[in-house]
């Protein structure tokens, strides 16, 4: 290709990019089709589910934040045969555990499955930005791990979050987990739908909850995963006599809900580094006058953007979704909470549920009141960016059917497995990536700079720059 032709193509690219970024052309529906492993769960005898050696050895180890501001963790684990000890030995030097905390344990039945003993231990009074080693033991069996506490709550504290949803325990799930662990992120914002054990029946439900706990331990034992619940955590199975919602999830996974004055582990808030993170429950009552509605009203008033400029909300069912799968299932929560999200200038809302990836522009639909007003979402500089990351790899497979034409609010969408990261740099800027799991290679497919709604309002553009467009256009010209 001659120099004149190359320059001509580059000029076309430059003009195209300028028009898109300036005038906000229609979003992109990716045509990428990846080869994927079958959407079936990994066999139970696979090494990723290996049971630790030793009688009654602790397994399914996981940590989550244990307080409001990041100076505590809750360490959880399971002893399969008998209770054993609920103590955690910890310290700043590996092998020298000068401190000890003691937790509690419980077990339960689900149909005829009898669980192991789940331990929860609060380790508090930690120093910020410090590496701690810890040991848990049961009789002659013991295991050792480590974690790093976040920096002190501060508007310019940098921190990198991973975002994963709808994970399951297939080989696609394993690819997502392995790619995430190479990302350098320091904590996971999990968007619900953990094990997909509810796809099984009778005793196999509990067995697959156990296998998933061992599956993710390679990450959850070393850094906090902040949990939210999805529809696959409801586990409503009347044919088995099991009608208590979230029974398996709540017995096994805990959250620091009391620290944020919540009445339920299913909705809560934390502050971590420069972020204020609010977790909502899509499958608990949230309409006006319910406990979750009252709590969110008060929690939003507690947000101090001078200390935590980044306001992030997690939920399972997306409010804005242009996929045929689960279309409009988030509409009731949008009607209940969207006006608050706009009023408080939430930076970004992450959701799962739809097994694909999609990102929106900043839009809102708060002007319509059933009888009058705009009936469609419109650009709104005070609105959040809505991002669906429900592509963790579960056995239900990908949601490949997007609605056409692509709505104006939709910036980018693709049906592939992957995970995201949000790398907060300071009070004004964060770098967001969506990484596609492309046949064993980590690929940054969607990437942009997120300007903070509070501190960056004077320099923020109405619509986010879609940096991935350049590579897309170059690929099209090259092909």
TrEMBL record:
Protein name: Purple acid phosphatase
Zinc listed as a keyword: yes
Cofactor(s) needed for function: Fe cation; Zn(2+)
InterPro entries documented for this protein: Calcineurin-like_PHP (IPR004843), FN3_dom (IPR003961), Metallo-depent_PP-like (IPR029052), MPP_PAP (IPR041792), PAPs-like (IPR039331), PAPs_C (IPR025733), PAPs_N (IPR015914), Purple_acid_Pase-like_N (IPR008963)
Lineage, top ranks: Eukaryota, Viridiplantae, Streptophyta, Embryophyta, Tracheophyta
Domain Fibronectin type-III, first and last residues per copy: 57-152
Keyword entries, A-Z: Glycoprotein, Hydrolase, Iron, Metal-binding, Signal, Zinc
Annotated Pfam families: Metallophos (PF00149), Metallophos_C (PF14008), Pur_ac_phosph_N (PF16656)
Signal peptide (UniProt feature, chain positions): 1-26
Family listed: Belongs to the metallophosphoesterase superfamily. Purple acid phosphatase family.
GO MF term set: acid phosphatase activity; metal ion binding
UniProt keyword Iron, yes or no: yes
EC number: 3.1.3.2
PROSITE patterns for the chain: FN3 (PS50853)
Domain of life: Eukaryota
Reactions catalysed, as given in the entry: a phosphate monoester + H2O = an alcohol + phosphate
């Amino acid at each position: 290709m001659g120099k004149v032709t190359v320059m001509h193509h580059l000029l076309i690219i430059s003009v195209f990019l300028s028009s898109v970024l300036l005038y906000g052309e229609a979003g992109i529906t990716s045509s990428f089709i990846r080869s994927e492993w079958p959407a079936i769960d990994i066999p139970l005898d696979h090494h990723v589910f290996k049971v630790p050696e030793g009688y009654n050895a602790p397994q399914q180890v996981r940590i989550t934040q244990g307080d409001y501001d990041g100076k505590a963790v809750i360490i959880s684990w399971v002893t399969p045969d008998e209770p054993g000890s609920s103590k955690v030995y910890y310290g700043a030097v590996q092998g020298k555990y000068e401190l000890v905390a003691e937790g509690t344990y419980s077990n339960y039945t689900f149909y005829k499955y009898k669980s192991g003993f789940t331990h929860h231990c609060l380790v508090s009074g930690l120093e910020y930005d410090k590496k701690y080693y810890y040991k848990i033991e049961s009789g002659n069996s013991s295991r050792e791990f480590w974690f790093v506490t976040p920096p002190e709550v501060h508007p310019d504290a940098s921190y990198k979050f991973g975002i994963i949803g709808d994970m399951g325990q297939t080989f696609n799930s394993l690819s997502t987990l392995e790619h995430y662990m190479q990302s350098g992120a320091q904590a996971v914002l999990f968007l619900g739908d953990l094990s997909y054990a509810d796809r099984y029946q009778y005793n196999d439900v509990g067995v697959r909850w156990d296998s998933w706990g061992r599956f993710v331990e390679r990450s959850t034992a070393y850094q906090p995963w902040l949990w939210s619940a999805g529809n696959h955590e409801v586990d409503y199975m009347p044919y088995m006599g099991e009608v208590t919602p979230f029974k398996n999830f709540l017995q096994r996974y805990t959250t620091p809900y009391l620290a944020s004055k919540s009445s339920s582990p299913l909705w809560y808030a934390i502050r971590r580094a420069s972020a204020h993170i609010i977790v909502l429950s899509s499958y608990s009552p949230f309409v006006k006058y319910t406990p979750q509605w009252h709590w969110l009203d008060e929690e939003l008033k507690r947000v101090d953007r001078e200390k935590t400029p980044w306001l992030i909300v997690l939920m399972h069912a997306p409010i804005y979704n242009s996929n045929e799968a689960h279309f409009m299932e988030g509409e009731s929560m949008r009607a209940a909470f969207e006006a608050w999200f706009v009023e408080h200038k939430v930076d970004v809302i992450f959701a799962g549920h739809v097994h694909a990836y999609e990102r929106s522009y900043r839009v809102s639909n708060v002007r319509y009141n059933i009888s009058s007003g705009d009936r469609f979402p419109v650009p709104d500089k005070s609105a959040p960016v809505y991002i669906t990351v429900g592509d963790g790899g579960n056995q239900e497979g990908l949601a490949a059917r997007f609605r056409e034409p692509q709505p104006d609010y939709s910036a980018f969408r693709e049906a592939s497995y992957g995970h995201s990261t949000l790398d907060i740099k300071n009070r004004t800027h964060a770098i967001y990536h969506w990484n596609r799991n492309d046949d064993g290679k980590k690929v940054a497919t969607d990437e942009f700079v997120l300007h903070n709604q509070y501190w960056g309002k004077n320099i923020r553009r109405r619509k986010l720059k879609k940096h991935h467009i350049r590579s897309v256009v170059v690929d099209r010209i090259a092909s």
